[in-house]
Amino acid sequence: xxxxxxxxxxxxxxxxxxxxxLLKNELCVCDIESVLEISQANASRHLAxxxxxxxxxxxxxAQWVYYAxxxxxxxxxxxxIESFTVELKRRSDYKNDLKSLSVxxxxxxxxxx
Length: 113
Fold this sequence. Notes:
Layout: H1 3-9, H2 13-22, E1 27-28, H3 29-36, H4 40-52, E2 56-61, E3 64-69, H5 71-76, H6 78-88, H7 92-107
Helix pairs in contact: 3-4, 3-7
């Protein structure tokens, strides 16, 4: 994982917000779309860039793709994750994203996308 690629990838507000959502949750693309109010194509494009940079992993379950922060990324960059976590907590969009995610999950706890 090249550090310059990681910073370049995380140098986008949408990808920062995706990173924040995935810090504690594995999420499917449709949840990310709903929270960020972006199209499926846009979400997939951002997620693909993050996966190429080694930040995310994905798994497919039937027709749904779920994303999470890569375990290798967590192992190699704990300080970076800690710094991002501190900064994210200061951002109003992060707090709003977590609230939106909570509302979405309550509306469809066992429903698939």
